[in-house]
Amino acid sequence: MSAPRQSTAGLVFKWCLSVCLALILLYFVFRIYANGQPLWAIGALCLFGLGFYVYLANVAFAYRYLYPGVAAMLVFVALPMFYTASIGFTNYSSNNLLSESRSRQYLLEQSVPVDATSMRFTLHPDGNEFRIALSELEDVEPAIPTANFVSASLALMSQTPPLNVRMSSAKEASFPIGPPLPLSEVLKHRSALQAATLSLPDGRKLSYAGVGEFAEMSSLWRPNADGSLLHLLTGESYHPNQTTGFFENEKGEQIQPGFKVGVGLANYARILLDQEFRAPFVAIFTWTVAFSGLTVVFTLAIGLLLAAILNWEALPARGIYRTLLFLPYAVPAFISILVFKGLFNQNFGEINALLDAVFGVKPAWFADPLLAKIMVLVVNTWLGYPYFMILCSGLIKAIPADLYEASALVGASPWTNFKTITAPLIIKPLMPLLVSVFAFNFNNFVVIALLTDGRPDYLNTKLPAGTTDILVSYTYRIAFQDAGQNFGLAAAISTIIFILIALLSMANLRLTRGRETNQ
Amino acid sequence: MAIVTSKQQKWRMLTAHVFLWALIAVTIFPLLAVISISLRPGNFSTGSLIPTEISLEHWKLALGFSYQADDGSLVEPPFPVLRWLWNSIKIATISSLLIVTISTTAAYAFARLKFPYKATILNSMLLLQMFPAVLALVAIYAIFELIGNYIPWLGIESHGGVMLAYVGGIAMHIWTIRGYFETIPQEIEECAKVDGATHWQTFRYVLLPMAMPILVVVFVLAFIGTIVEYPVASVLLREEANLTLAVGSKYYLNDQKFLWGDFAAAAVLCGLPITIVFLTAQRWIVSGLTAGAVKG
């Protein structure tokens, strides 16, 4: 097939556009690189480069159609997976958030006020704006200090308060300054004052140095030639420790913030070997398996039974029944789960109101571990049975009717029909679906996160762990909720789940293949 | 065939009806209860399923109006529900359009074009989709933080970022559309090619118009899938005005501040349209179910 002919003008336009786009994208790549993230820059460069190659070079047309989809899946599905797995081998957490060079930079930017240069400041309202006045610090503070330097009127209340403030000598000031603001009023402007630098006429630069004072700042740290940092107040050297991810002195004292380092298998060792961590982990793992297994059993039992009844042709009004029974699937899950959260509420939920009226009991659904687990299972069964009802309906319809007619001739009961005809014929096509529903519920984060948030918690664990937490919700808590957001540990658990899911997928593939070859 | 109904048969029929009605009662009790609660005055009162006293206070709050309480104080809406609904619809619509566009072109390549490793690429895409995004949240957060450093409107706390994150979930849709493309006879496109149409022209003017029904189905599926998505949105969006409905609704039922009645009105207000869309699309969704797609 010949390539379509393009006019010269069209060609010029196409190349101009491509060059402009290429320049913009190269600029982004350069900025990523300049920010000290060469690996990301290389990745972005490869992605963009491949895009230009596919659309501009004369390669197979198919790739032009594939590129957006494949790129989206690579960047937003495959990359997060591999990145998660790699985070699992690091100590990435809220304490060790930055790279080593960034954390060094952060420390080198830290500064302390030099006491001898401190000056007292006062704020003086001037219309809607304020003037800053500086005076010498004195042992006994006069009520109204004599100002040495004053600023112009500053809009401290605005969205963008001034950063650089020029101070002029008070003697030369042509305007009178009003009475100073009381301290409580001054504190309201603290964030604006902290951001400001005052330049004195003699070239000194002062920064906010605590309540009522501005002073010259000096760095807290000085880099040594060997890569360590010298603490200028104590004179101690802090060396970067590549195993713990902190700058440490000889006594092993650590300086915040730490940095991200590889820790090898430490996270996995912690999950599998640390006695204190293993106990809740094993409990949560067991509950995850029980939760997904029991959900499959309950939803399948109810769904299959309903499908069998609704396929009974003599039954009137089957369509209405089916629509009503399908409703749990049609209501958005996040709404129905929260509705259940309210209904199960111990004190003013409707379920306890009912139970109280009939049996005189008010169970604590959210406080008792066993009751909470039962509640989670009830809600999840409610959410899940329509799926099996619909699936099994389809499968039962596909069974040849003459089988049932034959069994009717010998007068078989419905139960015999089910046991000898229906069940054996649908179990095979059902198997891969059972596995995928199991895998889905294994990671059914939404139902746990919205219903119980994993609570009630175990009492004696180092990291908070809940009795209704399943592995994914536990991972989420470690990574995003509780103090000390430990991304590395969460990623390690995620990686373990990845492997489990991969195994389940393989089993699923086998079952599907087996079904196809049998048919 | 003459139907012979024995006495036994009648009993069975009755049992089936009783059983079905019992189950329907359990199934729709929560849904009826939440409607009744939304009409009941107060956030803590319990009462019968049919409310004895109708009050529209929760509905006023859900629709963004404040109302005068009995003691004379003005009650303000606790959360911007309509804003959340709008955020959800905006994100779901735009990301579904992106998803449909990207998966249609990819499906065309898989259905019609020849290229090496075709089956391998499609199978690995389907396999990748088995791993839910909730497992890679840490990495997703880190990636969008990085993107946000350079393009703020695609970073953390931006709706653009959430839309972009959803665009990765296309494997099932590619599979569905590919299956539909394969049912369309290839001869029509070949005729177009004989007349001198390019690849793109046959795709755009011949195949796409014929595939419209499946594109609508995929759009609805993607729309429902993204509007109920919770984990990714909960990590990427944190500011109250920015939340989607799925993330925001949770804040009504905080243990310290349990706004049961207000939640009920908001839930009915937002849940009803989504449920109606879902029931309308039910037929297509059911056919998608058997392909192994599980709703989240």
Notes on the structure:
The complex is a heterodimer of chains A (519) and B (296). Chain A is built from 17 helices and 14 strands. In chain A, the strands form 3 sheets. Chain A has a 7-stranded mixed beta barrel with strand order 2-3-4-5-6-7-8. A 5-stranded antiparallel beta sheet of chain A has the order 10-11-12-13-14, covered by helices on one side. A two-stranded antiparallel ribbon of chain A has the order 1-9. By secondary structure, chain A is of the alpha+beta class. Chain A is elongated and about 115 Å long. Helix content of chain B is 65%, strand content 1%. Chain B has 14 helices and 2 strands. A two-stranded antiparallel ribbon of chain B has the order 1-2. Mean pLDDT of chain B is 85; it is low at 291-296. Classes of the chains: A alpha+beta (519), B mainly alpha (296). At the A-B interface, helix 1, helix 3, helix 8, helix 9 and helix 10 of A face helix 1, helix 3, helix 4, helix 5 and helix 11 of B.
Read across the widest sheet of chain A, the strand sequence of neighbours is 2-3-4-5-6-7-8
Structural class of chain A: alpha+beta
The tally of beta strands of chain A, per DSSP, is 14
The chain-level structural class of chain B is: mainly alpha
Spatial strand sequence of the major β-sheet of chain B: 1-2
